[in-house]
Design goal:
The protein has a four-stranded antiparallel beta sheet. The two termini are 32 Å apart. Helices cover 68% and strands 9% of the residues. The chain has nine helices and four strands; from the N terminus they run ααβαββαβααααα. The chain is an alpha+beta fold. It is elongated and about 85 Å long. It has two domains: 14-38 and 123-297, Multidrug efflux transporter AcrB transmembrane fold; 46-118, Alpha-Beta Plaits, CATH 3.30.70.3400.
């Protein structure tokens, strides 16, 4: 029989984890329905300035100048040694001319190569295709986990992924953080990280179930498996977060949206793998056992 002397029992406290998840998710879900997401120019369109400077210039210097016009969050990309592509909200002709004049005066002269309004990079059709791809990926993951482990673990893993995605979307909606194409990449990365962490835990549960004795309870086997993989999960997430925090602080404003989404998502992904996926799997197994008991009685 498993002798569990660990500080607390993850599975016996599963209702607490569920309540925590609901309390965290609820404000974001309400915000998603009430005010939606703050879509950036990649989704809603905007203006594009392609500028060539007469002398070497940094992204920070360009951002400082256009920030005077309320465009601190604009996307600024270096396309050459002295060439920059700036994507902003849609600007009127007068606003565009004022920005170009300010940049020309403060940064030593500039040549305008393009100044045009652009449509959304990610249109409704691509968003629909992205959701379709996620659904297909979820089905394939369930099939793989069912083949590698069992069907109920596949369902539990997908529930954890939905939990992670909703939380990230909810936070960005709640605080009306502007999202762009990098945000989509961040969500896909979070899903990949979360499912990897969950599979590692499920693999340990599978190994322990194969070696368990008849007197060992399922909840104890899962709890022991969680404690055995806990150090690995914490060390992995901390290692990733150290890098992400460094990038957020020193990587420039252009990647802030991407890094912030990854920070939130990877943290909650580690939590959901332990406190959502595994408890949900236990409850699904409990429903299966109760169903069998009712059938046997009938």
């Amino acid at each position: 029989m498993l002798r569990d002397k660990r500080p607390f029992h993850f599975i016996k406290l599963r209702k607490i984890w569920y309540i925590i998840s609901i309390l965290i998710l609820l404000p974001g879900i309400i915000s998603l329905f009430s005010q939606g997401l703050n879509l950036g120019i990649d989704f809603s369109g905007g203006s594009l300035l392609d500028l060539r400077f007469n002398q070497p210039t940094t992204v920070q210097e360009v951002r400082q100048v256009i920030g005077e016009f309320g465009l601190e969050g604009a996307s600024i990309q270096r396309s050459g040694e002295v060439d920059f592509i700036i994507r902003t909200r849609e600007l009127s002709e007068d606003e565009g001319n004022e920005i170009i004049q300010a940049v020309d005066e403060k940064l030593g002269g500039v040549t305008v190569q393009r100044n045009e309004r652009v449509g959304p990079v990610i249109g409704q059709e691509l968003i629909t295709k992205a959701f379709g791809a996620l659904i297909v990926a979820s089905i394939l993951m369930v099939i793989y986990i069912t083949w590698r482990f069992e069907f109920k673990q596949g369902i539990a893993a997908i529930i954890a992924l939905i939990h992670d995605s909703l939380l990230v979307l909810g936070v960005f909606s709640l605080f009306q953080i502007v999202i762009d194409s990098a945000f989509v990449a961040a969500v896909l990365t979070i899903i990949g990280y979360s499912i990897n962490d969950t599979i590692v835990i499920f693999d340990r549960i599978r190994e322990n179930l194969l070696n368990k004795k008849k007197t060992d309870k399922l909840e104890d086997v899962i709890n022991v498996s969680l404690w055995q993989t806990l150090a690995r999960s914490i060390n992995t997430v901390l290692t990733v977060e150290f890098i992400l925090i460094s990038l957020y602080l020193f990587g420039g404003a252009t990647i802030h949206t991407l890094i912030l989404a990854l920070l939130i998502g990877i943290t909650v992904g580690a939590y959901s793998s332990i406190c959502v996926a595994s408890p949900v799997y236990f409850d699904l197994k409990g429903m299966e056992r109760r169903g069998r008991t009712k059938t046997a009685r009938a």
